[in-house]
Amino acid sequence: MRGKPRVWSEAEMAGLWKSAAEASGGRSANHLYVHVPFCKSICAFCNYDRLKPSSADGLREWRDRVLASMRTLGPAVRDLSFHALYFGGGTPSVLPSAILREVFEGLDAQFRWHPFASRSIELDPATVNASKIRAMVDHGFDHFSFGVQTRSAHVNVQHNRGPQGPSTVDRCLDLLPGPLLSTVAVDVLIGLAGVTPDDTLADAEALMLHPRRPRVDLFHLTPTRSYVQSHFGGSRDRASDALARYDDPFRDRLARLAHRCGYALHNADSHHFHTLHPQGRSRYTSVQNLRDLGGQLGRDLQSLAAKYRAGKTLRIRGPRHGYTQLANTAGRQHNLLGLGPSARSQIFGIASAQTIPAAGQSGRTAYRGATIDPSDELRTFIIFDIRDHAFVDEKRVQKIFNTTFAESFADALSVWLEEGFVQPASNGWRFQRRRPEVLSTLMLWLVPDQILEQVIEDKSQQTARKHGESQPNARSRAPRP
Protein backbone atom coordinates (compact mmCIF):
# COMPACT_ATOMS: atom_id res chain seq x y z
CA MET A 1 0.00 0.00 0.00
CA ARG A 2 1.95 2.98 -1.29
CA GLY A 3 -0.64 5.34 -2.77
CA LYS A 4 -1.04 6.44 -6.39
CA PRO A 5 0.97 4.36 -8.91
CA ARG A 6 3.08 5.91 -11.65
CA VAL A 7 5.44 4.84 -14.44
CA TRP A 8 9.06 5.85 -15.04
CA SER A 9 11.01 5.36 -18.26
CA GLU A 10 14.34 3.57 -17.92
CA ALA A 11 16.18 6.88 -18.39
CA GLU A 12 14.09 8.44 -15.60
CA MET A 13 14.80 5.47 -13.35
CA ALA A 14 18.52 5.90 -14.06
CA GLY A 15 18.18 9.52 -12.90
CA LEU A 16 16.61 8.41 -9.61
CA TRP A 17 19.42 5.92 -9.06
CA LYS A 18 22.05 8.56 -9.83
CA SER A 19 20.55 10.89 -7.20
CA ALA A 20 20.45 8.08 -4.63
CA ALA A 21 24.04 7.05 -5.38
CA GLU A 22 25.31 10.60 -4.98
CA ALA A 23 23.49 11.00 -1.64
CA SER A 24 24.38 7.57 -0.23
CA GLY A 25 27.74 8.42 1.29
CA GLY A 26 28.51 4.71 1.58
CA ARG A 27 25.85 4.21 4.29
CA SER A 28 23.50 1.91 2.38
CA ALA A 29 23.46 -1.81 1.67
CA ASN A 30 23.13 -2.20 -2.11
CA HIS A 31 21.88 -5.43 -3.62
CA LEU A 32 21.12 -6.45 -7.20
CA TYR A 33 18.43 -8.90 -8.30
CA VAL A 34 18.12 -10.47 -11.77
CA HIS A 35 14.76 -12.03 -12.64
CA VAL A 36 14.88 -14.94 -15.09
CA PRO A 37 11.19 -15.61 -15.87
CA PHE A 38 11.58 -19.07 -17.42
CA CYS A 39 10.67 -22.49 -16.02
CA LYS A 40 10.64 -25.91 -17.62
CA SER A 41 7.06 -26.28 -16.30
CA ILE A 42 4.56 -24.08 -14.45
CA CYS A 43 4.03 -25.37 -10.91
CA ALA A 44 0.42 -25.38 -9.73
CA PHE A 45 1.17 -23.59 -6.45
CA CYS A 46 3.40 -20.81 -7.85
CA ASN A 47 2.17 -17.22 -8.34
CA TYR A 48 5.43 -15.64 -9.52
CA ASP A 49 5.81 -14.09 -12.96
CA ARG A 50 7.16 -16.93 -15.10
CA LEU A 51 6.55 -18.69 -18.38
CA LYS A 52 7.59 -21.81 -20.21
CA PRO A 53 10.17 -20.93 -22.90
CA SER A 54 8.77 -21.72 -26.32
CA SER A 55 11.93 -21.06 -28.33
CA ALA A 56 15.61 -20.13 -28.07
CA ASP A 57 14.66 -16.70 -29.48
CA GLY A 58 12.72 -15.91 -26.29
CA LEU A 59 15.79 -16.62 -24.16
CA ARG A 60 17.97 -14.40 -26.37
CA GLU A 61 15.39 -11.58 -26.28
CA TRP A 62 15.47 -11.72 -22.48
CA ARG A 63 19.28 -11.60 -22.54
CA ASP A 64 19.33 -8.58 -24.85
CA ARG A 65 16.78 -6.70 -22.74
CA VAL A 66 18.70 -7.30 -19.51
CA LEU A 67 22.06 -6.35 -21.05
CA ALA A 68 20.49 -3.13 -22.42
CA SER A 69 19.18 -2.26 -18.93
CA MET A 70 22.66 -2.82 -17.50
CA ARG A 71 24.12 -0.35 -20.01
CA THR A 72 21.53 2.28 -19.03
CA LEU A 73 21.53 1.82 -15.25
CA GLY A 74 25.16 0.83 -14.68
CA PRO A 75 26.71 4.29 -15.26
CA ALA A 76 24.10 5.85 -12.93
CA VAL A 77 25.22 3.74 -9.94
CA ARG A 78 28.99 3.86 -10.42
CA ASP A 79 29.25 5.54 -7.00
CA LEU A 80 27.57 2.55 -5.33
CA SER A 81 29.38 -0.60 -4.27
CA PHE A 82 27.06 -3.62 -4.52
CA HIS A 83 27.14 -6.09 -1.65
CA ALA A 84 25.09 -8.99 -3.04
CA LEU A 85 23.81 -10.44 -6.32
CA TYR A 86 20.83 -12.77 -6.59
CA PHE A 87 19.60 -14.62 -9.69
CA GLY A 88 16.01 -15.78 -9.21
CA GLY A 89 12.93 -16.51 -11.20
CA GLY A 90 11.53 -18.53 -12.68
CA THR A 91 14.56 -20.75 -12.82
CA PRO A 92 17.92 -19.33 -14.01
CA SER A 93 19.30 -22.81 -14.71
CA VAL A 94 16.90 -23.04 -17.67
CA LEU A 95 19.29 -20.68 -19.50
CA PRO A 96 22.09 -22.25 -21.59
CA SER A 97 25.56 -21.88 -20.11
CA ALA A 98 26.60 -19.50 -22.95
CA ILE A 99 23.82 -17.02 -22.09
CA LEU A 100 24.59 -17.34 -18.38
CA ARG A 101 28.20 -16.37 -19.06
CA GLU A 102 27.20 -13.38 -21.22
CA VAL A 103 24.95 -12.00 -18.49
CA PHE A 104 27.51 -12.64 -15.75
CA GLU A 105 30.18 -10.82 -17.79
CA GLY A 106 27.81 -7.88 -18.31
CA LEU A 107 27.22 -7.59 -14.57
CA ASP A 108 30.95 -7.58 -13.87
CA ALA A 109 31.54 -4.92 -16.52
CA GLN A 110 28.71 -2.52 -15.58
CA PHE A 111 28.58 -2.62 -11.77
CA ARG A 112 31.08 -2.16 -8.95
CA TRP A 113 31.20 -5.06 -6.47
CA HIS A 114 32.28 -5.07 -2.84
CA PRO A 115 35.25 -7.44 -2.22
CA PHE A 116 33.02 -9.57 0.03
CA ALA A 117 29.90 -9.45 -2.13
CA SER A 118 27.90 -12.69 -2.16
CA ARG A 119 26.46 -14.24 -5.32
CA SER A 120 23.41 -16.49 -5.16
CA ILE A 121 21.43 -18.34 -7.80
CA GLU A 122 18.32 -20.53 -7.96
CA LEU A 123 18.39 -23.87 -9.75
CA ASP A 124 15.99 -26.51 -11.00
CA PRO A 125 17.40 -30.00 -10.28
CA ALA A 126 16.03 -31.23 -13.60
CA THR A 127 17.70 -28.54 -15.78
CA VAL A 128 21.09 -28.08 -14.13
CA ASN A 129 24.24 -29.69 -15.52
CA ALA A 130 28.00 -29.57 -15.00
CA SER A 131 28.55 -26.93 -17.73
CA LYS A 132 26.10 -24.50 -16.12
CA ILE A 133 27.55 -25.06 -12.66
CA ARG A 134 31.02 -24.39 -14.05
CA ALA A 135 29.85 -21.05 -15.52
CA MET A 136 28.40 -20.07 -12.13
CA VAL A 137 31.52 -21.07 -10.17
CA ASP A 138 33.81 -19.30 -12.67
CA HIS A 139 31.92 -16.06 -11.98
CA GLY A 140 32.05 -16.32 -8.22
CA PHE A 141 28.65 -17.71 -7.27
CA ASP A 142 28.92 -19.02 -3.74
CA HIS A 143 25.33 -19.80 -2.75
CA PHE A 144 23.04 -22.21 -4.59
CA SER A 145 19.39 -22.91 -3.83
CA PHE A 146 16.71 -25.05 -5.38
CA GLY A 147 13.17 -26.16 -4.71
CA VAL A 148 12.57 -29.72 -3.60
CA GLN A 149 9.03 -28.97 -2.27
CA THR A 150 8.53 -32.72 -1.82
CA ARG A 151 10.63 -35.77 -2.64
CA SER A 152 7.51 -37.57 -3.84
CA ALA A 153 7.65 -37.86 -7.64
CA HIS A 154 3.92 -38.65 -7.66
CA VAL A 155 2.96 -35.45 -5.81
CA ASN A 156 5.33 -33.40 -7.97
CA VAL A 157 3.61 -34.72 -11.09
CA GLN A 158 0.24 -33.74 -9.59
CA HIS A 159 1.58 -30.20 -9.16
CA ASN A 160 2.94 -30.03 -12.73
CA ARG A 161 6.59 -30.16 -11.61
CA GLY A 162 7.41 -33.31 -13.53
CA PRO A 163 8.50 -36.63 -11.94
CA GLN A 164 11.15 -35.08 -9.67
CA GLY A 165 12.09 -37.66 -7.05
CA PRO A 166 15.00 -38.45 -4.71
CA SER A 167 17.46 -39.37 -7.47
CA THR A 168 16.99 -35.99 -9.24
CA VAL A 169 17.48 -34.10 -5.98
CA ASP A 170 20.58 -36.10 -4.99
CA ARG A 171 22.11 -35.66 -8.46
CA CYS A 172 21.79 -31.87 -8.15
CA LEU A 173 23.37 -31.85 -4.68
CA ASP A 174 26.23 -34.01 -5.95
CA LEU A 175 26.93 -31.59 -8.84
CA LEU A 176 27.38 -28.55 -6.62
CA PRO A 177 30.80 -27.40 -5.35
CA GLY A 178 31.80 -28.41 -1.85
CA PRO A 179 31.59 -26.34 1.35
CA LEU A 180 35.00 -24.71 0.80
CA LEU A 181 33.53 -22.69 -2.07
CA SER A 182 29.78 -22.51 -1.47
CA THR A 183 26.69 -22.97 0.63
CA VAL A 184 23.54 -24.77 -0.48
CA ALA A 185 19.91 -24.30 0.53
CA VAL A 186 16.92 -26.41 -0.47
CA ASP A 187 13.24 -25.48 -0.15
CA VAL A 188 10.45 -27.72 1.12
CA LEU A 189 6.80 -26.62 0.99
CA ILE A 190 4.59 -27.18 4.03
CA GLY A 191 0.91 -27.83 3.33
CA LEU A 192 1.04 -29.25 -0.21
CA ALA A 193 -2.00 -31.29 -1.12
CA GLY A 194 -1.14 -34.99 -0.98
CA VAL A 195 1.67 -34.55 1.56
CA THR A 196 1.34 -35.35 5.28
CA PRO A 197 3.44 -34.01 8.18
CA ASP A 198 5.11 -37.45 8.36
CA ASP A 199 6.05 -37.14 4.67
CA THR A 200 7.53 -33.69 5.26
CA LEU A 201 9.59 -34.91 8.22
CA ALA A 202 10.90 -37.83 6.14
CA ASP A 203 11.86 -35.41 3.34
CA ALA A 204 13.66 -33.13 5.79
CA GLU A 205 15.56 -36.07 7.31
CA ALA A 206 16.71 -37.37 3.92
CA LEU A 207 17.99 -33.91 2.98
CA MET A 208 19.79 -33.40 6.28
CA LEU A 209 21.53 -36.78 5.96
CA HIS A 210 22.89 -36.08 2.47
CA PRO A 211 26.71 -35.64 2.67
CA ARG A 212 26.42 -32.14 1.16
CA ARG A 213 24.46 -31.12 4.30
CA PRO A 214 22.37 -28.32 2.80
CA ARG A 215 20.42 -25.76 4.75
CA VAL A 216 16.75 -26.78 4.61
CA ASP A 217 14.11 -24.02 4.40
CA LEU A 218 10.53 -25.10 5.05
CA PHE A 219 7.99 -22.55 3.77
CA HIS A 220 4.30 -22.59 4.61
CA LEU A 221 2.24 -22.76 1.43
CA THR A 222 0.31 -19.60 0.60
CA PRO A 223 -2.52 -21.13 -1.44
CA THR A 224 -3.77 -19.08 -4.37
CA ARG A 225 -7.46 -19.05 -5.27
CA SER A 226 -6.84 -21.40 -8.21
CA TYR A 227 -4.82 -23.77 -5.99
CA VAL A 228 -7.60 -23.92 -3.40
CA GLN A 229 -10.09 -24.60 -6.18
CA SER A 230 -7.98 -27.37 -7.76
CA HIS A 231 -6.77 -29.18 -4.63
CA PHE A 232 -9.22 -28.31 -1.84
CA GLY A 233 -12.52 -28.13 -3.71
CA GLY A 234 -12.58 -24.34 -3.44
CA SER A 235 -12.71 -24.51 0.37
CA ARG A 236 -10.38 -22.11 2.19
CA ASP A 237 -11.25 -23.91 5.42
CA ARG A 238 -9.90 -27.20 4.06
CA ALA A 239 -6.70 -25.46 2.98
CA SER A 240 -6.34 -23.88 6.44
CA ASP A 241 -6.94 -27.25 8.09
CA ALA A 242 -4.15 -28.76 5.98
CA LEU A 243 -1.75 -26.09 7.23
CA ALA A 244 -2.96 -26.41 10.83
CA ARG A 245 -1.51 -29.95 10.91
CA TYR A 246 1.91 -28.26 10.98
CA ASP A 247 1.41 -26.41 14.27
CA ASP A 248 3.07 -27.18 17.63
CA PRO A 249 3.26 -31.02 17.52
CA PHE A 250 4.91 -30.91 14.10
CA ARG A 251 7.36 -28.20 15.11
CA ASP A 252 8.32 -30.14 18.24
CA ARG A 253 8.99 -33.26 16.17
CA LEU A 254 10.96 -31.21 13.64
CA ALA A 255 13.16 -29.76 16.39
CA ARG A 256 13.94 -33.23 17.78
CA LEU A 257 14.68 -34.59 14.30
CA ALA A 258 17.00 -31.66 13.57
CA HIS A 259 18.94 -32.31 16.78
CA ARG A 260 19.38 -36.00 15.92
CA CYS A 261 20.75 -35.07 12.49
CA GLY A 262 23.17 -32.45 13.80
CA TYR A 263 21.03 -29.49 12.72
CA ALA A 264 19.42 -26.59 14.59
CA LEU A 265 15.85 -25.41 14.03
CA HIS A 266 15.45 -21.65 13.58
CA ASN A 267 12.16 -19.66 13.40
CA ALA A 268 10.34 -22.48 15.17
CA ASP A 269 7.40 -20.26 16.14
CA SER A 270 6.90 -18.70 12.73
CA HIS A 271 3.73 -19.31 10.71
CA HIS A 272 5.67 -18.36 7.58
CA PHE A 273 8.85 -20.47 7.44
CA HIS A 274 11.30 -22.62 9.45
CA THR A 275 15.00 -23.11 8.76
CA LEU A 276 17.21 -26.11 9.52
CA HIS A 277 20.89 -25.11 9.83
CA PRO A 278 23.68 -27.71 9.81
CA GLN A 279 25.74 -27.66 13.02
CA GLY A 280 29.11 -29.28 12.38
CA ARG A 281 29.34 -32.99 11.46
CA SER A 282 26.19 -35.08 11.87
CA ARG A 283 26.44 -38.10 14.16
CA TYR A 284 24.92 -40.04 11.24
CA THR A 285 27.80 -39.20 8.86
CA SER A 286 29.21 -42.48 7.61
CA VAL A 287 32.76 -43.26 6.48
CA GLN A 288 31.55 -43.32 2.87
CA ASN A 289 29.89 -39.93 3.30
CA LEU A 290 33.13 -38.53 4.69
CA ARG A 291 34.97 -39.88 1.63
CA ASP A 292 32.38 -38.22 -0.64
CA LEU A 293 32.77 -34.92 1.20
CA GLY A 294 36.55 -35.24 1.01
CA GLY A 295 36.22 -35.71 -2.75
CA GLN A 296 34.23 -32.47 -2.99
CA LEU A 297 36.86 -30.59 -0.99
CA GLY A 298 39.59 -32.04 -3.21
CA ARG A 299 37.76 -30.85 -6.33
CA ASP A 300 37.41 -27.39 -4.76
CA LEU A 301 41.17 -27.20 -4.13
CA GLN A 302 41.89 -28.33 -7.70
CA SER A 303 39.57 -25.62 -9.01
CA LEU A 304 41.30 -22.94 -6.95
CA ALA A 305 44.74 -24.13 -8.08
CA ALA A 306 43.70 -24.04 -11.75
CA LYS A 307 42.41 -20.48 -11.36
CA TYR A 308 45.62 -19.42 -9.63
CA ARG A 309 47.75 -20.87 -12.46
CA ALA A 310 45.56 -19.06 -15.00
CA GLY A 311 46.00 -15.74 -13.20
CA LYS A 312 42.29 -15.43 -12.33
CA THR A 313 40.86 -13.85 -9.20
CA LEU A 314 40.40 -16.42 -6.45
CA ARG A 315 37.09 -16.30 -4.58
CA ILE A 316 37.15 -18.41 -1.40
CA ARG A 317 33.95 -18.38 0.63
CA GLY A 318 34.36 -16.27 3.72
CA PRO A 319 32.34 -13.68 5.64
CA ARG A 320 30.14 -12.51 2.77
CA HIS A 321 27.36 -9.93 2.71
CA GLY A 322 24.13 -11.93 2.51
CA TYR A 323 21.45 -10.98 -0.01
CA THR A 324 18.18 -9.54 1.21
CA GLN A 325 15.30 -7.45 -0.10
CA LEU A 326 14.60 -5.92 3.31
CA ALA A 327 16.16 -3.11 5.33
CA ASN A 328 15.34 -4.90 8.58
CA THR A 329 17.52 -7.85 7.48
CA ALA A 330 20.30 -5.59 6.16
CA GLY A 331 20.25 -3.62 9.41
CA ARG A 332 20.71 -0.29 7.60
CA GLN A 333 19.35 1.73 4.70
CA HIS A 334 18.87 -0.65 1.78
CA ASN A 335 18.72 -0.28 -1.99
CA LEU A 336 17.63 -3.03 -4.39
CA LEU A 337 18.26 -2.76 -8.13
CA GLY A 338 16.13 -5.17 -10.17
CA LEU A 339 16.85 -6.33 -13.73
CA GLY A 340 14.52 -8.35 -15.95
CA PRO A 341 10.72 -8.48 -16.32
CA SER A 342 8.79 -8.10 -13.03
CA ALA A 343 11.99 -7.54 -11.04
CA ARG A 344 11.38 -5.24 -8.07
CA SER A 345 13.56 -2.20 -7.43
CA GLN A 346 13.64 -0.23 -4.18
CA ILE A 347 15.54 3.06 -3.88
CA PHE A 348 15.56 3.82 -0.17
CA GLY A 349 13.11 6.61 0.68
CA ILE A 350 12.65 7.54 -2.98
CA ALA A 351 10.82 4.93 -5.08
CA SER A 352 9.55 1.36 -5.18
CA ALA A 353 8.90 -0.08 -8.64
CA GLN A 354 8.57 -3.22 -10.74
CA THR A 355 10.04 -3.68 -14.20
CA ILE A 356 7.52 -3.79 -17.08
CA PRO A 357 6.44 -5.22 -19.44
CA ALA A 358 5.90 -8.62 -17.82
CA ALA A 359 7.47 -11.82 -19.07
CA GLY A 360 6.38 -12.75 -22.60
CA GLN A 361 5.11 -9.25 -23.42
CA SER A 362 6.71 -6.79 -25.81
CA GLY A 363 7.41 -3.09 -25.37
CA ARG A 364 10.06 -0.71 -24.12
CA THR A 365 11.43 -1.38 -20.63
CA ALA A 366 9.86 0.87 -17.98
CA TYR A 367 9.12 0.80 -14.24
CA ARG A 368 5.71 0.87 -12.58
CA GLY A 369 5.50 1.76 -8.91
CA ALA A 370 5.17 4.68 -6.51
CA THR A 371 7.27 7.32 -4.86
CA ILE A 372 8.02 6.57 -1.21
CA ASP A 373 9.51 8.38 1.76
CA PRO A 374 11.30 7.26 4.93
CA SER A 375 7.97 6.75 6.75
CA ASP A 376 6.98 4.16 4.11
CA GLU A 377 10.32 2.43 4.61
CA LEU A 378 9.82 2.46 8.39
CA ARG A 379 6.34 0.94 8.09
CA THR A 380 7.68 -1.90 5.95
CA PHE A 381 10.57 -2.39 8.38
CA ILE A 382 8.16 -2.70 11.35
CA ILE A 383 5.78 -5.06 9.55
CA PHE A 384 8.53 -7.54 8.68
CA ASP A 385 10.11 -7.35 12.13
CA ILE A 386 6.74 -8.22 13.67
CA ARG A 387 6.04 -10.99 11.15
CA ASP A 388 9.45 -12.66 11.22
CA HIS A 389 10.71 -11.97 14.75
CA ALA A 390 7.69 -10.88 16.85
CA PHE A 391 9.99 -8.17 18.21
CA VAL A 392 10.85 -4.56 17.33
CA ASP A 393 14.23 -3.35 18.54
CA GLU A 394 13.96 0.39 19.19
CA LYS A 395 17.76 0.86 19.07
CA ARG A 396 17.87 -0.54 15.53
CA VAL A 397 14.93 1.62 14.47
CA GLN A 398 16.59 4.73 15.91
CA LYS A 399 19.89 3.95 14.19
CA ILE A 400 18.36 3.53 10.72
CA PHE A 401 15.46 6.01 10.78
CA ASN A 402 16.43 8.55 13.45
CA THR A 403 13.08 7.99 15.19
CA THR A 404 11.41 5.22 17.19
CA PHE A 405 8.50 2.87 16.59
CA ALA A 406 6.65 4.31 19.61
CA GLU A 407 7.04 7.89 18.33
CA SER A 408 6.05 7.12 14.74
CA PHE A 409 3.09 4.79 15.33
CA ALA A 410 1.66 5.90 18.66
CA ASP A 411 -1.98 5.20 17.66
CA ALA A 412 -1.26 1.65 16.52
CA LEU A 413 0.83 0.95 19.61
CA SER A 414 -1.94 2.22 21.90
CA VAL A 415 -4.54 -0.07 20.31
CA TRP A 416 -2.21 -3.08 20.28
CA LEU A 417 -1.30 -2.60 23.96
CA GLU A 418 -4.99 -2.46 24.85
CA GLU A 419 -5.67 -5.66 22.88
CA GLY A 420 -2.70 -7.48 24.43
CA PHE A 421 -1.00 -7.93 21.05
CA VAL A 422 2.22 -6.25 22.24
CA GLN A 423 4.09 -5.79 25.52
CA PRO A 424 7.09 -3.61 26.37
CA ALA A 425 10.39 -5.49 26.55
CA SER A 426 14.05 -4.69 27.05
CA ASN A 427 15.15 -2.33 24.23
CA GLY A 428 11.87 -2.68 22.36
CA TRP A 429 8.49 -4.38 22.00
CA ARG A 430 7.53 -8.07 22.11
CA PHE A 431 4.54 -9.21 20.01
CA GLN A 432 2.26 -12.23 20.22
CA ARG A 433 2.42 -14.67 17.32
CA ARG A 434 -0.74 -14.53 15.22
CA ARG A 435 -1.89 -16.40 12.13
CA PRO A 436 -1.10 -14.62 8.82
CA GLU A 437 -4.71 -13.61 8.11
CA VAL A 438 -5.10 -12.11 11.62
CA LEU A 439 -1.71 -10.43 11.45
CA SER A 440 -2.54 -8.81 8.09
CA THR A 441 -5.62 -7.16 9.62
CA LEU A 442 -3.66 -5.87 12.61
CA MET A 443 -0.99 -4.38 10.35
CA LEU A 444 -3.60 -2.07 8.77
CA TRP A 445 -3.21 0.14 11.85
CA LEU A 446 0.19 1.14 10.46
CA VAL A 447 -1.19 2.35 7.11
CA PRO A 448 -2.08 6.07 6.78
CA ASP A 449 -5.76 6.85 6.22
CA GLN A 450 -5.16 8.53 2.87
CA ILE A 451 -3.49 5.41 1.48
CA LEU A 452 -6.29 3.16 2.74
CA GLU A 453 -8.84 5.51 1.17
CA GLN A 454 -6.94 5.47 -2.13
CA VAL A 455 -6.81 1.66 -2.13
CA ILE A 456 -10.55 1.42 -1.39
CA GLU A 457 -11.33 3.90 -4.18
CA ASP A 458 -9.11 2.03 -6.66
CA LYS A 459 -10.73 -1.30 -5.76
CA SER A 460 -14.19 0.23 -6.09
CA GLN A 461 -13.40 1.60 -9.53
CA GLN A 462 -11.94 -1.74 -10.63
CA THR A 463 -15.13 -3.50 -9.52
CA ALA A 464 -17.26 -0.91 -11.30
CA ARG A 465 -15.32 -1.32 -14.55
CA LYS A 466 -15.62 -5.07 -14.28
CA HIS A 467 -19.40 -4.89 -13.97
CA GLY A 468 -19.85 -1.94 -16.32
CA GLU A 469 -21.13 0.35 -13.58
CA SER A 470 -20.38 4.02 -12.90
CA GLN A 471 -19.08 5.12 -9.52
CA PRO A 472 -19.17 8.60 -7.98
CA ASN A 473 -15.71 10.06 -7.43
CA ALA A 474 -16.06 10.36 -3.67
CA ARG A 475 -14.21 8.93 -0.70
CA SER A 476 -15.36 7.92 2.72
CA ARG A 477 -13.00 7.52 5.63
CA ALA A 478 -11.38 4.07 5.56
CA PRO A 479 -12.67 2.02 8.48
CA ARG A 480 -10.04 0.69 10.84
CA PRO A 481 -10.15 -3.01 11.75
Task: Please sum up the structure shown.
This protein has 481 residues and is α/β, with parallel strands linked by helices. It has helices spanning 10-24, 56-73, 97-110, 130-138, 153-158, 166-175, 197-208, 225-231, 236-244, 248-260, 287-309, 327-330, 374-389, 394-401, 405-408, 410-419, 436-443, 449-467; strands at residues 6-9, 29-36, 82-89, 113-123, 143-149, 183-190, 215-220, 263-266, 273-278, 334-339, 344-347, 351-356, 366-371, 391-393, 422-425, 428-431.
Characterization of this structure:
- This protein is α/β, with parallel strands linked by helices and 481 residues long.
- Residues 282-290 and 471-479 have low confidence and may be disordered.
- It is built from 18 helices and 16 strands.
- Helix content is 43%, strand content 20%.
- The longest helix has 23 residues, at 287-309.
Classify the beta-strand content into a percent band: 15-25%
User: Which residues form runs of ≥5 with pLDDT under 50?
Assistant: 282-290, 471-479
- The shape, in one word, is globular
Mean of pLDDT = 86
What's the count of strands? 16
Q: CATH topology of the domain at 6-298, anyone?
A: TIM Barrel
Largest sheet: 9 strands, mixed
Rg, please?
23 Å
User: What helical percentage do the residues reach?
Assistant: 40-55%
Order of strands side by side in the largest beta sheet? 8-9-7-6-5-4-3-2-10
CATH architecture of the domain at 6-298: Alpha-Beta Barrel
Distance between the termini: 16 Å
Specify the number of helices. 18
- What structural class results from the helix and strand content? alpha/beta
CATH class of the domain at 6-298: Alpha Beta
